[in-house]
Design a protein that fits this description.
The protein has 6 helices and 13 strands. By secondary structure, the protein is α/β, with parallel strands linked by helices. A hairpin with a 5-residue loop joins strand 7 and strand 8. Helix 1 crosses helix 3.
Length: about 210
């Protein structure tokens, strides 16, 4: 990350269980939200974090969705209504996102595209979890969405029951190791703020 950027993690409890999903607010000269959580309750968590940061709902410049699954888009409609931001997702996810949430996607993303916010956000298409699943690279920080899960200081693949194509999902983990990063912020599990690429390489070798 650039020196002026901060990453704020917003946790959302899943279905009353101990497991959580996460949204991320990237706070620099721009304010970008990654994913919206499971429900309207998740939207309230994001709004609470905004108040904590002394930022207004209208300050969010863009909401980027890593993929279509409910625990990532469930809070979208409420947040869109409250904040008025534009929504970005991979072009293969746009239809399913709108069908699931009633919210249209304003910016259709493609592999290799750089979004000109927060010093540049690179889109990395890593299909397999879903057809349009993406990771996001910002400086030295990687947000892999559900391409991998955090697991007690290490990483593990996304469980096969959640994938559209597990073979493809496993194969595309190698795509992420071709980029340089230190910190890795998975949507589920523990963040790895040091040696994130090394941990991902270790996972790849174990598959």
């Amino acid at each position: 990350m650039g020196a002026i950027s901060l990453i704020h993690v917003v946790q959302h409890r899943l279905l009353g269980l101990m497991s959580v999903s996460k949204s991320f607010l990237i706070d620099s000269s721009d304010l970008v939200l990654i994913d919206t959580g499971l429900s309207s309750g998740s939207a309230r968590n994001v709004m609470s974090k905004l108040r904590e940061l002394e930022r207004a709902p209208g300050d969010i410049d863009l909401c980027i969705l890593t993929h279509r699954h409910r625990d990532h888009v469930g809070g979208l409609k409420r947040l869109k209504d409250a904040c008025g931001f534009n929504v970005a997702a991979h072009k293969l996810e746009a239809g399913p996102v709108e069908e699931a949430t009633g919210v249209g996607v304003d910016m259709l993303l493609e592999d290799g595209q750089v979004i000109p916010l927060c010093g540049g956000i690179r889109v990395i298409h890593v299909p397999g979890h879903t057809d349009g699943n993406i990771a996001l690279l910002m400086g030295r920080a990687l947000f892999p969405g559900d391409s991998v899960f955090g697991d007690k200081g290490s990483l593990k693949p996304s469980p096969s029951r959640y994938n559209s194509n597990t073979e493809e999902a496993l194969r595309n983990i190698s795509t992420l190791t071709s980029y340089d990063f230190d910190a890795l912020y998975p949507s589920h599990g523990i963040d790895i703020t040091i040696s994130g690429k090394e941990k991902l390489t270790e996972l790849l070798r174990s598959l």
